[in-house]
Amino acid sequence: MNTLVRMPSLNANEDQAIVTDWLVEDGAPVSRGTEICIVESTKATHDVSAEEGGFLRHLVSKGQVVKNNQPLAVITATSNEDYTAYLAALEQAESVTSNRRWTKKAELVAKKIGVDLNALAGRIPDRVISEADVLAFNKTAFEGTDLLEDAHPSLRPQRILLIGGGGGGGSVTLDAISRVRHQRAVGILDNNAALHGKTMMGVPIIGPNSMAAELWTNGSFDAAIICVTGKIDDRAAIFDSLKEQGIRFANVIDPSTVVKSYVSMGEGNLIMGNGYLAPSCTLGDNNFLASHACIEHDSKVGSHCTFGPRTTTSGAVTIGDRVKFGMGVLIEPYLIIGDNSLIPSGCVLTNNVPPNSVIKVQHSQTIKGRD
Amino acid sequence: MASYLMGLQSGLAESLAASEKVLVLGEDLVDPYGGAFKVTKGLSTRFPGRVFNTPICEGGFTGVAVGMALRGYRPVVEIMFGDFLTLCTDQIVNHMAKFPSMFNGQVKVPLVIRTPMGGGRGYGATHSQSLEKMFLGLPGIKVVAPSHVHTVSEILQHAILVDDDPVLFIENKVLYPLDQPDSVYMEQSDEIPGYPTVAFRNFSSGKPDVTVFAYGGMSREIVPLLEKLHNDELNVTAVFPSCLWPIPEETLVRYGAQCDRLLICEEGSVGFNWGSEISALLYDKLWRNLNAPIARLAASSQVIPAARHLEAEVLVNTEKIEKAIWELMS
Fold first, then answer.
1. Whole-angstrom Cα distance, residue B174 to residue A24?
2. In angstroms, how far is CA B141 from the centroid of its own chain?
3. For residues A305 and A324, what is the distance between their CA atoms, to the nearest angstrom?
């Protein structure tokens, strides 16, 4: 058993001292408490004693300046014992070995987007892995899993999966999500196989809509939103099927839309920019409101409806389920619009619409060449 | 390369050479001792009759200096340790700060009180504090605390020779041996004339991930840390105002607006400190920009221990700052 004797710290203002004399010869026996050497700071001299008995082996010579806490001597258990391996082991333990394989920023990004750094380090053996390496790896190897390990999951942004988001509906949805802090798009599903493996606004298009169940089971997202806006039946069918599998839906609302007091809505509603939801209006589930849609006070909207840009209801209008509005539709107060109706662009509704109606609007428009 | 200490020495010497009205007073300043931290070393020899040793009576000699300033001198007082400012606080608060306005601007008090603050040296409870927060916000004075990124010689000369307001000049004692660091990514802004704010960056282009606001001795911890964080691909701007009071508001807000994660560090204790006021300012102007609450670091609310390892637990150090920065990022 070896014991190391170190330079003591003698006063607050000095980090070194001089060994002025050895009181015990190199190799001579010492007992516990034997004074072995004298060290001197600018203010005082100090006797250093042996903490254990054994044989004293000098590591520094008389007159040498030694930094505080650096070794002065080793006390070996037996005479002439070889202590070189002991010192080497000590030195190795104290030296800071730098064998890191990635920067801290790379680690942070990898954790956030779910990249396995050890796997990446295997591919890039010859240098420190950077943030750019992680992002490039992520592009090729995204598995649709967001593995953010977060001590406070309630505080992290809601992770949104876009269903049928490969087209225009997806891009407006991604834009709306990018403008809020409480949600974050983590992936897009779309049945167009040509899009798989590509990205939109940096978000990967992972696979067909049918992958949603698997991703939900893996905990890869917190809520879904449907971006299909053309066919209402498709939109409703996807919603019902995912609900059956227990998947939760988000409401995605562009922050430029004004939501007034006492507005209530279900889930899965996608509301684009510059909309206006007046006080006490109600929305069901899975509605799509394009930009500048206005639902006035006390109006009620059912579920699975789509509203084209600039469609406006006046106060206390009641709208059923699966109603499709074109662009710029205007609806007078207190009217009732029945389920499954189709209302074309530019229509001004002045009467109630029974369920399953199709409104035809007579436009008279002629286009002539200029004289 | 000139150290912070050499900068102070030359700032004093240049001031004494520039004006006959400059006098220096304090305890043990005269050669051969030359002051507890050697800031006045050589001055009494070079400028005979203008550097005075005083009795151990801070209230008395500070009062003498206030009187000299009223009568047209530009005295410099050294208080051996900032902890002893408590002994001359009546002169500072009720006399030095108030005379110009009480006499309707007919008198000036162009006085500089220099004093070392700060811990990290194992000096214990009464020689390690950062008490400048007691004087922040006091009407009628400036509180200046340059870091080692500043050209301290010029700042001291400005305070002595140019500034007609009374100035409390804080020197963090751990800075004395440090050389002014070089950086190509350094900017200086002069919102408060003579007392520049220096911004130190560890990146050449792009935007900072984190912006750190700090002053005085914190630069010793932060400047080397920036190099380390650069190797970890983290862009950090460190903003060091040399003037704590009044606040260079526009400058601090301008740097704060460049970034959505902000950290404020100081060596003094938590509670009603510099960071309280700076964070209130930044929240007021920038709350919409922020991605996280402003993080703040200060010494814990304790008497500063003498044992080095316990002192390190109480005070802010590099490890704590680095940890706070990564917490802001995650």
1. 39
2. 14
3. 6
CA distance A13 to chain B (A): 7
Distance of alpha carbon A159 from the chain centroid: 8
Q: Are A276 and A294 in contact (CB under 8 A)?
A: yes
B238 exposure class (CB count in 10 Å sphere: 0-12, 13-18, 19+): buried
Helices and strands per DSSP (H, E), number in chain A: 7, 30
Note down pLDDT in tens along chain A; length 371 residues.
Answer: 789 999 998 877 788 999 999 999 999 999 999 999 999 988 889 999 999 999 999 999 999 999 998 999 999 999 888 898 888 888 877 765 556 789 998 888 888 777 888 888 888 888 889 988 888 776 544 444 443 444 445 556 888 999 999 999 999 999 999 998 889 899 999 999 999 888 898 899 989 999 999 999 888 898 999 999 889 999 999 999 999 999 999 999 999 999 999 999 999 999 999 999 999 999 999 999 999 999 999 999 999 999 999 999 999 999 999 999 999 999 999 999 999 999 999 999 999 999 999 999 887 888 999 98
Evaluate whether B301 touches B310 at the Cβ level (below 8 Å). Answer: no
B144: tokens are 């200046």
What distance, in Å, lies between the first and last C-alpha atoms of chain B? 39
- pTM comes to 0.65
Q: What is the tens place of the pLDDT at every residue in A123-159?
A: 888 888 998 888 877 654 444 444 344 444 555 688 8
- Residue A38 has phi, psi (to 5 degrees) of -115, 130
- Cβ-defined contact of B234 to A104 (cutoff 8 Å): yes
Residue B309, chain A, CB below 8 Å: the answer is: no
Peptide bond into A255 cis (omega under 30): no
Q: Starting from the edge strand earliest in sequence, which strands make up the sheet with A35-40, in order? A: A45-49, A35-40, A16-22, A65-67
The count of CB pairs under 8 A between chains A and B is 26
Alpha helices for chain A (secondary structure H): 84-94, 104-113, 117-123, 131-141, 168-178, 212-217, 232-244
Q: Report how far residue A40's alpha carbon sits from residue A20's, in angstroms, rounded to the nearest whole number.
A: 7
Residue of A nearest to B289 (CA): A181
Chain A CB contacts of B233 below 8 Å: 103-106, 130-131
Strands A35-40 and A45-49: antiparallel
| Residues B53 and B29 sit within 8 Å (Cβ to Cβ) | yes
Cα–Cα dist B184/A133, whole Å: 27
Angle at B169 between CA B167 and CA B175, to 5 degrees: 165
State the SS3 of A353-367: ECCCCECCCCCCCCC
Q: Is A253 left (phi over 0), alpha (psi -120 to 50) or beta?
A: beta
Alpha helices (runs of H) in chain B, residue ranges in sequence order: 4-18, 43-46, 58-70, 89-90, 99-102, 152-157, 218-231, 249-256, 274-286, 308-314, 318-329
Residues 112..141 of B with a Cβ closer than 8 Å to A: which? 121-123
